[in-house]
Write a structure and sequence with these properties.
With 229 residues, this protein is α+β, with helices and mostly antiparallel strands. The chain is built from four helices and eight strands; from the N terminus they run H-E-E-H-E-E-H-E-H-E-E-E. It has helices at residues 2-22, 55-75, 119-129, 144-168, and strands at 26-37, 41-52, 83-95, 100-113, 133-140, 174-182, 191-192, 216-228. The longest helix has 25 residues, at 144-168. It starts with a helix and ends with a strand. Residues 1-18 form the signal peptide.
Length: 229
């Protein structure tokens, strides 16, 4: 009997405690922080593509062009860790009208360019050496982690400001934060699919400008619950 009474007492206290927790006045708000950044790097994906009727000849020609491309990249003094072969393929193509086989060979390079002032020189050289496909160019920041941290702080500040605005009308104040949820989506730089076209200039020595870098947005989103005082 004593055990039963003790058990009922514990259940009653637990229920009372849970009810008390639920009755704590609070406000829940969302906050967003956004940092606009001028990119200082670009990831460039380019391809050498060759076609022909003989698989061996097509692959040989493709390899020779890629060798020339890699020699040029080395002359640009890029860090070997900043460029890599992304994929290699040799595929048969069948022409149903002519009833003949042909072959298509591709090699794709991914290049991290850490100095955007070299962009035009790099792209011109790549095309001259055999690159015939620019798959995409993605602009990014070398200080992404720092900017993400700043965006998170701005998100918290906005959430606090919202909460203060709401409760000020009621003559109350916000207390400490009870919960903080990070709702931010992973940041993936958006690729720019480009066909680079330079303007004709009367003065061939004039600097070329084929790149409009613009800005990228780094955002953070949070949900915060504050106690009301």
């Amino acid at each position: 009997m004593k055990k039963a009474i003790l058990l009922l007492s514990i259940l009653f206290l637990t229920a009372s405690y849970s009810q008390e927790i639920k009755q704590i006045p609070q406000i829940t708000v969302n906050g967003e922080g956004k940092v606009k950044v001028i990119p200082d790097q670009a990831t460039i994906v380019v391809t050498v593509e060759t076609k022909g009727n003989n698989a061996k000849d097509v692959k040989k020609e493709n390899d020779q062009k890629m060798e020339a491309v890699l020699r040029f990249i080395k002359k640009m003094n890029l860090d070997p860790a900043d460029y890599k072969t992304q994929r290699v393929s040799l595929n048969p193509q069948y022409d149903y009208e002519k009833k003949k086989h042909s072959y298509n060979a591709t090699q794709t390079l991914e290049i991290l360019l850490k100095d955007l002032s070299k962009y035009d020189e790099l792209m011109d050289g790549l095309v001259d050496e055999g690159i015939n496909r620019i798959d995409n160019v993605t602009f990014q920041s070398s200080k992404l982690a720092q900017h993400q941290s700043e965006a998170r702080k701005l998100a918290i500040e906005e959430a606090k400001m919202k909460a203060e605005d709401y409760v000020s009308v009621l003559g109350q104040k916000i207390g400490r934060a009870m919960t903080i949820s990070d709702n931010s989506q992973p940041f993936y730089p958006q690729p720019m699919y480009m066909a680079v076209k330079s303007m004709e200039m009367s003065d061939t020595k004039a600097p070329r400008e084929t790149l409009a870098v613009g800005e990228i947005n780094i955002t953070a989103n949070v949900t915060v619950s504050f106690i009301l005082e």
